[in-house]
Automatic annotation (TrEMBL):
Organism encoding this protein: Sulfurimonas aquatica
Keyword list, A-Z: Membrane, Transmembrane, Transmembrane helix
Pfam families linked to this entry: Sulf_transp
Stretches that traverse the bilayer: 20-38, 59-81, 87-109, 121-144, 164-183
Superkingdom of source: Bacteria
Protein name per its UniProtKB record: YeeE/YedE family protein
Amino acid sequence: MESIIKMFTTVSNANNGSVWLVLFIGFCFGAIILYSRLDKFEKMAGFMIFEDTLVPRMAMTTVALSSLGFYFLVDAGYASYSVKPTILGGLIVGGVLFGIGLVILGKCPSAFFVSVSEGRVDALVGVLGGMVGGAVFTIAYPFIEKLIGPDLGKIRLSDLFGGYDLIIVLVLSTVLLVTAYFLPTINYVDPADEIK
């Protein structure tokens, strides 16, 4: 319980801006997910069987534009970031668990809340499971920390290339945007929907 209280205290003391601004951005993000139908199981299932390209195209576009915007906000002094340490064991285990959850529920975690707002019970189970899992992880972290492997430090691409932050952001964003643009548009239609 002490770990959970510490987590909430740390977050509230981080001074990351207005809660209302965060809520507004969250509502905008949810509206985009709802409008593009990324909260639908069929979209994720279509992506996983290579019969729908909306998910990768949206993801690439989002990462590219967010990277550019965030870089310029940091450069102008309006935002800051902290690079998290690279712990390969934790990344591998976390990635596997994330993938398993994605396949079982057929949704990305960011789409759960949109689906819950539509009344989908499967998404509610996913949200509750995520909250319980997060609480268990927070409580068990002192024990898990010893098992997830060594801390390799804060690794950034700009450290590997000796600087050039802007060039790295521009190149990666351009590659993602060009790939998203030229990726063929394929929309998966669930055969069950065609029968109706």
